[in-house]
């Protein structure tokens, strides 16, 4: 018997979508033909905001609040490694919806809606954005499709019976809202600091199950709707001059750049 | 078919970011309607009607819209979306929150954070933290997009738009506003300040930010920080300048003790003049700085303070 589960007056099942992206330390290169970013032989990792989402779900499980944590990814066969990372951090099982198409956020949200309908989680925690497309859309779109409330850019969450308090990072500071469950939460940086998976947990993760699915299983057409005309390098900013003293700096800002009066 | 812009406001005045999004909307070449949803928002509506280029202001005054929560606002916008070929808002935390909900309810894709209007269906937006610029063509029935405010000039004053009252679609009650803890500051807001002075990990502690604040007060500047400084707990997240924080483009940006990680550069490299103060002469920040000073910030900043 699990004593923790007995004394909790509520428990929840959590779904955590995770994305495989270019590692955040990699300096990306635009392809010379301007069709996209060169991903050949580039180190790939779990999107940092997704790591925060997995961490939060695993902490809720360790606290006895979550009964099961399921990691799901939409992507190529290699996205399985990203799911394994989530399993090594503590998720219980995985679902890979395999496709080689670069799926747009709306179609990802439709696929995730299918997963939610099959798994009936009480809470879906996602990263607020992926560091490749920088869209910041999927969580909000999933909430819309499900008719669920959304707590985006969370820096703190407090689940209770039937609802969840979410503190959000907003432009002027912090905002706290209360959402009925089931709900969608997207993570911001300060929610937690993700753990590194230990070697024993990495080994254990290899035995955890990953279901393999396709977009067709959910009846979702993942054909992109937006046409990428080109992907270009941003304009390069030239390095300027070094100054030797504060006096010289202030002088140049006043008399050369004209930005100080 | 017209273009709808969703306003951000405090029930009194229309946010600067919205005026910039209106400039992007005008570039699409259609009539621009501005939705002001709020509670007791008559003053904001009056402010909206004066914006140059706005043909009509749509007013939705109801407690449901007091805090622009995504759930009731999205329902309102979807109820009135017919007749609009584009729905636009500024990419503020509010806009980023509610816009994808609207897009999905309309079954339309969204473009986030556009930085240029190429033509009525084609737009530029940064990807990979601004390390690449994507040109995207939209063929959906409704263009749904958020606008990076720093990339557009603010629409001016001088308009006299008509005002139409909308019927509230109410609130389903699945989300509830509890409270806010706003950073209290007499300094200008980061994204609209003419001068920004930011500190990085080199500041060593939150207390040391007082030396930046002193300079900021002399210059009328806003104070920002790198993600490293936020991660280290020196300052709150709303100070963060960078791809995962705020994007700024002031006249003058002073980076103090900031190494210049890609993610930080993405948030400030469109500033007109960049100054870097760092004791490490190899720091990447010097590659984008117009004026670089290799010095210990704990000497240089107080010296700057007294030189002003």
TrEMBL record, chain B:
<dbReference type="InterPro" id="IPR018206">
    <property type="entry name" value="ETF_asu_C_CS"/>
</dbReference>
<dbReference type="InterPro" id="IPR033947">
    <property type="entry name" value="ETF_alpha_N"/>
</dbReference>
<keyword id="KW-0249">Electron transport</keyword>
<protein>
    <recommendedName>
        <fullName>Electron transfer flavoprotein subunit alpha</fullName>
    </recommendedName>
</protein>
<dbReference type="InterPro" id="IPR014731">
    <property type="entry name" value="ETF_asu_C"/>
</dbReference>
<keyword id="KW-0813">Transport</keyword>
<dbReference type="GO" id="GO:0050660">
    <property type="term" value="F:flavin adenine dinucleotide binding"/>
</dbReference>
<dbReference type="InterPro" id="IPR014729">
    <property type="entry name" value="Rossmann-like_a/b/a_fold"/>
</dbReference>
<feature type="binding site">
    <location>
        <begin position="240"/>
        <end position="244"/>
    </location>
    <ligand>
        <name>FAD</name>
    </ligand>
</feature>
<comment type="subunit">
    <text>Heterodimer of an alpha and a beta subunit.</text>
</comment>
<feature type="domain" description="Electron transfer flavoprotein alpha/beta-subunit N-terminal">
    <location>
        <begin position="3"/>
        <end position="181"/>
    </location>
</feature>
<comment type="function">
    <text>The electron transfer flavoprotein serves as a specific electron acceptor for other dehydrogenases. It transfers the electrons to the main respiratory chain via ETF-ubiquinone oxidoreductase (ETF dehydrogenase).</text>
</comment>
<dbReference type="InterPro" id="IPR014730">
    <property type="entry name" value="ETF_a/b_N"/>
</dbReference>
<feature type="binding site">
    <location>
        <begin position="226"/>
        <end position="227"/>
    </location>
    <ligand>
        <name>FAD</name>
    </ligand>
</feature>
<feature type="binding site">
    <location>
        <position position="201"/>
    </location>
    <ligand>
        <name>FAD</name>
    </ligand>
</feature>
<dbReference type="InterPro" id="IPR029035">
    <property type="entry name" value="DHS-like_NAD/FAD-binding_dom"/>
</dbReference>
<dbReference type="GO" id="GO:0009055">
    <property type="term" value="F:electron transfer activity"/>
</dbReference>
<keyword id="KW-0274">FAD</keyword>
<keyword id="KW-0285">Flavoprotein</keyword>
<dbReference type="InterPro" id="IPR001308">
    <property type="entry name" value="ETF_a/FixB"/>
</dbReference>
<feature type="binding site">
    <location>
        <position position="278"/>
    </location>
    <ligand>
        <name>FAD</name>
    </ligand>
</feature>
<feature type="binding site">
    <location>
        <begin position="257"/>
        <end position="264"/>
    </location>
    <ligand>
        <name>FAD</name>
    </ligand>
</feature>
<dbReference type="Pfam" id="PF01012">
    <property type="entry name" value="ETF"/>
</dbReference>
<dbReference type="GO" id="GO:0033539">
    <property type="term" value="P:fatty acid beta-oxidation using acyl-CoA dehydrogenase"/>
</dbReference>
<comment type="similarity">
    <text>Belongs to the ETF alpha-subunit/FixB family.</text>
</comment>
<dbReference type="Pfam" id="PF00766">
    <property type="entry name" value="ETF_alpha"/>
</dbReference>
